[in-house]
Amino acid sequence: MPEKSIEINCPACGRETLLMRQPKYDGFKRVGETFSCSACGHEFASESEVPFKNGRKVGVFTDADRSKQVKVFDDDEKGKICRYCKNYIVNPFTQYCSHHKKEVEATDTCPAFTPKPAEPPKKVAL
Ligand SMILES: [Zn+2]
Predict the structure, then answer these.
(1) What is the pTM of this model?
(2) Strand ranges of the sheet holding 43-44, from the earlier edge strand across to the other edge
(3) Average pLDDT per run of 10 along the chain, which is 126 residues long?
(4) Near ion ligand 1, which residues have CB within 5 Å?
(5) Which phi and psi (to 5°) does residue 117 adopt?
(6) Helix, strand, coil share of the chain (percent; to 5)
C-alpha cells in the first residue's frame, strides 16, 4: 500500500522529519509496524507515541466536506410548465390558461410563463 509521507516533530533529534513505517516481523509472521524517525532513526514504541506534526484527525470530516453531500434542488427542473404558472387555472372539467384563453395541459410549457406567486410555505430553511 503506498504510504504518503507523514511529517513528525522528532523529540530525539528535534527536527521536522518524516516518519518511517516498516513492517515488523516475528519470524515470518507480520506482527505489526515499527515507527521511526527518518533522520535519526529514533524508534517510537507505538503509533500512539508518534509525534505527528499536524496532529491527527481520523474520520473527522470538515463542514466543507459535508456540504458537498447536500443535494441541490434545481428550481429550473420545474421548467416553465403550465401547472406552475399563475395563469394556469384548473377546474373539474378543464385546465385553462387565462393568458392565452385556451385549454392547456398541466405539463405544457409556455413562453409567457409567469411563476405562481407564493405557494403555501413548504420550504425548509437551508
Ligand atoms: Zn529524529
Answers:
(1) 0.40
(2) 7-9, 16-26, 29-37, 43-44
(3) 76 95 91 93 91 66 53 56 89 90 89 78 64
(4) 10, 12-13, 37, 39-40, 42
(5) -75, 145
(6) 10, 30, 60
